[in-house]
Design a protein that fits this description.
This protein has 6 helices and 10 strands, in the order βββαββαβαααβαβββ. With 218 residues, it is an alpha/beta fold. The protein has a single domain (30-56, 81-216), classed as P-loop containing nucleotide triphosphate hydrolases (Rossmann fold, 3-Layer(aba) Sandwich), CATH 3.40.50.300. α3 (99-110) runs parallel beside α5 and α5 (141-154) packs parallel to α6. The two termini are 19 Å apart. The structure holds adenosine-5'-triphosphate. InterPro entries: AAA+_ATPase, ABC_transporter-like_ATP-bd, ABC_transporter-like_CS, ABC_transpr_LolD-like, P-loop_NTPase. This is ABC transporter ATP-binding protein.
Length: 218
C-alpha cells in the first residue's frame, strides 16, 4: 500500500527553481498494479525516486505499507530499500558477472546468511534456466530485462518500482516482459508501479494513472 499526502518537491534548474509537486496526494491499494503514464518531463521518474527513498520530499508524507519513509534518515532509507525491487530501462546488469551472479548479487548483499530458496523456480518461470552461466552481453534485450526482473523478485519485495523497463525492447518483447512481470507480481501479492509510454501495455494493469502538472489526471 502506498499513501502520499501533500507531497511537495522542487529542484534547482540553473538559476530557477522548478516545482514538480506542490500538494500532491494519492493512494495505491495493497497489491494494486499501476501503470504510470505522462508526458516527457512530467515527473514520472522523479516520483518513482521519491517512492523509492532515493530522493527526499521538501514536505509531505510518503508511506509505504507501515513505513513512513518521508521521515527516515539515510540509514533507515538504505534499510528500507532492501525491501523494494527496482527495475530500470537500462538493465543495470554487471557485465563481468554471469546471469546467475547478477541475479544473486543484491540478495547476497541484503541477506548474506540466507540462501535464495526461490531461485530455481523463478529462473524457470522467467525462461532463464539455460542462460545462468552466460554473460549479460550474450543475451537479447528481453532476456536481460528478465534477469533484472528475477533480481528484483528474488528479494521478495512488497513493492516493485519499474521505470520504463521495456523502453529498449520491440513491441512483442515488451508485451512478453510486462505480462511476465505483472503475472509474477500478482502471484506474489506485490504492489507494482511501472512507468511506461505505451498505452497498449496498460492492459496488463489494474489501474492507469496519468501524471500532468504534478497531479494524477484519472
Ligand atoms: N537530476 C536532475 N537535476 C535537475 N533537473 C532534473 C533532474 N532530473 C530530472 N530533472 C528535471 O525534472 C523534470 C522531471 O523529470 P523526470 O525525469 O522525472 O520526468 P519523466 O516524466 O520521467 O520524463 P521522461 O518521460 O522523459 O523520462 C524534468 O523537467 C527534468 O528536466
Amino acid at each position: 500500500m502506498i499513501s502520499v499526502t501533500d507531497l511537495c518537491f522542487s529542484r534547482q534548474d540553473g538559476d530557477q527553481v522548478q516545482t514538480l509537486f506542490d500538494g500532491f496526494s494519492f493512494n495505491i491499494a495493497a497489491q494494486e498494479q499501476v501503470a504510470l503514464l505522462g508526458d516527457s518531463g512530467s515527473g514520472k521518474t522523479t516520483l518513482l525516486h521519491l517512492l523509492a527513498g532515493l530522493l527526499s520530499p521538501d514536505s509531505g508524507q510518503i508511506k509505504i505499507d507501515d513505513a513512513l519513509i518521508s521521515s527516515y534518515d539515510a540509514q533507515q532509507l538504505a534499510h528500507f530499500r532492501r525491501k523494494i525491487g527496482l527495475i530500470f530501462q537500462h538493465y543495470q546488469l554487471l557485465d563481468c558477472l554471469t546471469v546467475k551472479q547478477n541475479i544473486l548479487f543484491q540478495h547476497k548483499l541484503n541477506f548474506p546468511n540466507q540462501s535464495p530458496d526461490a531461485l530455481d523456480s523463478l529462473v524457470e518461470q522467467l525462461g532463464l534456466s539455460d542462460k545462468l552461466n552466460k554473460l549479460p552481453s550474450q543475451l537479447s534485450g528481453g532476456e536481460q530485462q528478465r534477469v533484472g526482473i528475477a533480481r528484483a523478485l528474488l528479494n521478495q519485495p512488497k513493492l516493485i518500482l519499474a521505470d520504463e523497463p521495456t523502453g529498449n525492447l520491440d513491441q512483442a518483447r515488451s508485451h512478453q516482459v510486462v505480462e511476465m512481470l505483472t503475472t509474477l507480481c500478482k502471484a506474489r501479492q506485490i504492489n507494482l508501479v511501472m512507468v511506461t509510454h505505451s498505452q497498449q501495455l496498460t492492459q496488463y494493469f489494474d489501474s492507469v494513472k496519468v501524471l500532468a502538472n504534478g497531479q494524477f489526471n484519472d
